[in-house]
Backbone:
């Protein structure tokens, strides 16, 4: 029990706090390092297949996670009919497969091309491993456990809410299969890595471009 | 009228000898770091030729610049929606192979190779991977190779030429070519600035220099694609874009940019022009054949009291206005209408102007005799016999408008004839008067053009505004010593190293 409390009750907070403090620290002290560190300039073709599949796949998967997080009851209600459960599981599986295939292609590209290897850091390798574990456990769940989506809505979401509301309830996830445990804990490792890897680039979505005028003029001596 | 000041440039192509001193001066100061080896903020190309990066003028491939849309214009490569849709892979980004893979030589092998039957050699190694490579391209790979079937034939500007014109241009052993030095044009309607999703690029209000804040850059690389001149570069090592900064730290300390300062042929002129920023969109959207004229129209007379009043109201410092009144660029571009922008059809309103080359006009190919000939009676030749077809120059400098190129070349000829008549006295007065009448030049103007072209001193060529250290100090908002220990410019707190 104490062991469970340590890894499911304490570890998430540790990761989240480090991620928030670390990101702010990095942004304020080393803004130059905030970059997507694109390597398209050195290798273009493989990147297209890998990056597009990975990013759209993972964004769709994360969106579905978010919907489940906000409306868990809807998911459970949807899943009551076997047919609808199949639709849900198949959709999730397909999207995750997209992400997985993209990620694997990106990993192969990163370590097979000599040019790309020169711009690969140790943290890139760590990040890719963590992402691979995360997506692989997700795909595994979708493939071998029929109730993955219901488990998420019924157990993981209340657990996540309990974390968010500072009343961690580890009993909710204690009895899930080990694959799910890895999936949950690895997700927090992913959050932990944000300020220490190129993952910071997701904080750089350029929304401002939507409404700013095309041309930017900066006056040193005005206003 | 929204009057702004712009530090503007003019290159006199008749004086360029293609020595690349400018490129080296720039390289040694700005782009000798890891990740920037392939960048040449200043480069010199042989024309006709494919340039650097290869075929950069071909916007079907690179999608740079603006294109008309309704009454206005839009970027070719991106817009507010596509910017997001293509955020994970940019469809039109040039890759390192469109430039060249930078390399060095393994010089240590010359000393360290074990004794053997062969001479040791220094093999070329890539500066990216450190692996041995076969060099297959370089920044000036087709230097002086005009006429070559492999390189010059692919020049996008040759598309509009007919076969006879091409033949005359490329006749073997009688080739004609000239050099085209290029730096960032510091445009009035820059594609790089407009395309940056992060808003990292901006135009400095005081002098119009286009700069890139690397602390804001997030490596979306749209600036690289959207610049039709391919003068923004991606540093693959730091994951940030970089570009020509017109040596603003040198300007701020009263020196001209390094490429200007080092120019052996003294082809480069630098000066302030005042322009009307209200007209940017309207004039960038003009029909193609009007673009050159409309851009000229935006440049305002710095002696006009109304312009001066508006400029001062707009916060343009009086020293800037004074510099504009002495600007050689203003004289060549606006007063004498002799300098033209490069590829105005890209619609970025470039503020680097060129005087097209006249020199090859002397010789022509006599089809009957099959020889290259110079007409002794008509020593200065006529434009009809020009070896470089007018259409080629028009494709480069006036979006295809031959008349505008002809006007400039006639003026160059007129000045020559005028000085020849004056100094050697072997040209009839009628001919000279005819030329002056035709071009609308007067004897005084010819003399001024001649002096500013051939006898211009350092101060004539570089009419820079005086530095304003008092404002620079204000900018640091407090203790100027606070920034003293920082690396380089732009206030990096750390070494500009690649993120983790």
Residues:
């Amino acid at each position: 029990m104490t062991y469970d409390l340590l890894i499911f009750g304490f570890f998430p907070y540790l990761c989240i706090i480090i991620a928030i403090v670390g990101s702010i620290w990095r942004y304020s002290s080393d803004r130059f390092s905030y970059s997507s560190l694109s390597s398209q300039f050195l290798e273009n073709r493989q990147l297209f297949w890998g990056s597009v599949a990975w990013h759209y796949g993972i964004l769709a998967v994360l969106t579905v996670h978010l919907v489940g997080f906000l409306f868990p009851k809807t998911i459970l209600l949807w899943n009551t009919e076997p047919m609808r459960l199949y639709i849900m599981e198949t959709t999730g599986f397909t999207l995750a497969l997209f992400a997985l295939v993209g990620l694997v292609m990106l990993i192969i590209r990163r370590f097979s091309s000599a040019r790309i290897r020169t711009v690969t850091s140790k943290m890139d390798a760590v990040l890719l491993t963590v992402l691979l574990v995360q997506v692989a456990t997700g795909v595994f769940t979708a493939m071998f456990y029929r109730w993955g989506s219901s488990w998420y809505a019924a157990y993981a979401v209340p657990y996540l809410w309990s974390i968010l509301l500072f009343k961690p309830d580890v009993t909710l996830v204690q009895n899930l299969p080990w694959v799910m445990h890895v999936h949950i804990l690895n997700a927090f490792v992913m959050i932990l890595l944000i300020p220490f890897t190129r993952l910071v680039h997701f904080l750089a979505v350029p929304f401002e471009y939507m409404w700013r005028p095309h041309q930017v003029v900066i006056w040193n001596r005005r206003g | 009228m929204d009057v702004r000041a712009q530090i503007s440039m003019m290159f006199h192509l008749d004086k360029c000898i293609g020595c690349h001193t400018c490129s080296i001066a720039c390289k040694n100061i700005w782009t000798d770091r890891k990740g920037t080896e392939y960048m040449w903020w200043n480069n010199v190309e042989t024309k006709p030729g494919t340039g650097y990066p290869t075929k950069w003028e071909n916007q079907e491939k690179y999608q740079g610049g603006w294109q008309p849309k309704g009454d206005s214009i839009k970027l070719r490569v991106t817009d507010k929606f596509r910017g997001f849709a293509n955020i994970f892979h940019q469809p039109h980004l040039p890759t390192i192979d469109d430039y060249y893979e930078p390399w060095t030589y393994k010089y240590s092998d010359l000393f360290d190779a074990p004794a053997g039957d062969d001479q040791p050699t220094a093999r070329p190694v890539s500066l990216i991977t450190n692996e041995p490579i076969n060099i297959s391209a370089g920044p000036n790979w087709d230097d002086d190779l005009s006429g070559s079937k492999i390189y010059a034939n692919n020049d996008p500007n040759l598309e509009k030429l007919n076969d006879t014109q091409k033949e005359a241009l490329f006749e073997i052993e009688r080739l004609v070519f000239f050099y085209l030095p290029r730096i960032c044009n510091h445009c009035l309607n820059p594609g790089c600035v407009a395309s940056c999703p992060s808003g990292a690029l901006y135009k400095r209000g005081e002098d119009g220099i286009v700069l890139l804040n690397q602390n804001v850059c997030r490596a979306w690389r749209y600036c690289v694609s959207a610049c039709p001149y391919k003068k923004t570069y991606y540093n693959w090592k730091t994951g940030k874009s970089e570009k020509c900064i017109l040596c603003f730290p040198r300007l701020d300390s009263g020196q001209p940019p390094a490429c200007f300062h080092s120019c052996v042929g003294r082809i480069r002129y630098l000066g302030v022009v005042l322009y009307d920023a209200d007209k940017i969109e309207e004039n960038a959207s003009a029909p193609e054949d009007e673009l050159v004229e409309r851009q000229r129209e935006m440049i305002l007379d710095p002696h006009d009291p109304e312009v001066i009043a508006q400029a001062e109201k707009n916060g343009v410092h009086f020293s800037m206005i004074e510099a504009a009144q002495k600007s050689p660029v203003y004289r060549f571009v606006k007063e004498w209408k002799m300098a033209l922008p490069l590829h105005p059809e890209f619609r970025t309103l470039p503020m680097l102007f060129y005087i097209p080359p006249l020199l090859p006009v002397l010789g022509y190919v006599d089809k009957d005799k099959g020889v290259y000939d110079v007409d002794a009676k008509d020593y200065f030749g006529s434009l009809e016999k020009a070896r470089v077809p007018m259409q080629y120059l028009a494709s480069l400098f006036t979006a295809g408008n031959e008349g505008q190129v002809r006007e400039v070349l006639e003026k160059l000829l007129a000045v020559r004839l005028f000085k020849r008549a004056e100094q050697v006295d072997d040209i009839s007065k009628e001919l000279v008067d005819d030329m002056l009448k035709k071009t609308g030049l007067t004897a005084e103007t010819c003399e001024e053009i001649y002096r500013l072209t051939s006898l211009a001193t350092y101060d004539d060529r570089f009419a820079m505004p005086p530095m304003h250290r008092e404002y620079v100090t204000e900018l640091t908002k407090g203790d100027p010593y606070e920034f003293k220990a920082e690396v380089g410019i732009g206030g990096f707190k750390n070494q500009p190293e690649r993120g983790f």
